Amino acid sequence: MNMNLEWYFANITDEESEAAFLREKGVFHRERSCLSCHQQMQLGSRRPNGSPQWKCTNKACGARISARTGTWFEGNNAGLM
Superkingdom, according to UniProt (predicted)? Predict the structure, then answer.
């Protein structure tokens, strides 16, 4: 993919598209396993501040972690955009 700043600003228009771009480039995780029960986690539910989070698919567990956990964005509360 030939990417430059013009492409970036034309295609990355909100935090959702930014997060998808970062997953595609391997900066954010594409999939996660729960640290508590080792079941698959699902991305998409939102925290009260609007940030995406991973949620365990095991209803008995229901653990949640920030999408930033385990990336170089961990501990940074600034918006992506």
Answer: Eukaryota
- CB distance 19 to 47 below 8 Å: no
Give CA 17 to chain center in angstroms: 11
What tens digit of pLDDT does each residue of 51-77 get? Answer: 788 999 999 998 999 888 888 778 877
Q: Cα separation of 15 and 22, whole Å?
A: 10
CA dist 56 and 80 (Å) reads 24
In a domain, 77, yes or no: no
In whole numbers, what is the pLDDT of the chain averaged over residues? Answer: 83
Confirm whether 12 is domain-assigned: no
In a domain, 19, yes or no: no
pTM of the model: 0.67
Cβ proximity of 53 and 65 under 8 Å: yes
